Amino acid sequence: MLFGEAASRILVSVKSSLEETWENYLRENLGQHWQKLGFVTNKGENMRILIESVAVIDVKMWEMSDRWGRAIEELMS
Known about the structure:
By secondary structure, the protein is an alpha+beta fold. It has helices spanning 19-30, 61-76, and strands spanning 2-6, 9-12, 46-51, 54-60. The strands form two sheets. It has a two-stranded antiparallel sheet with strand order 1-2. Strands 3-4 form a two-stranded antiparallel ribbon.
């Protein structure tokens, strides 16, 4: 999966079996101008973002989806 809202930043999700190949490609083509943010798991129903093992975001997936799906409707009401 590839996602980006600006030309200077993208978010890429890579199968774990291809992780080393992808990181080698990035090193060869971008040098130090990239950053690994984390990994995706199937554990739980929350999206958790950890910084140095501390959860800075811990949100239920259904809640994020609901807010995103109703954002314009709520702004218009």
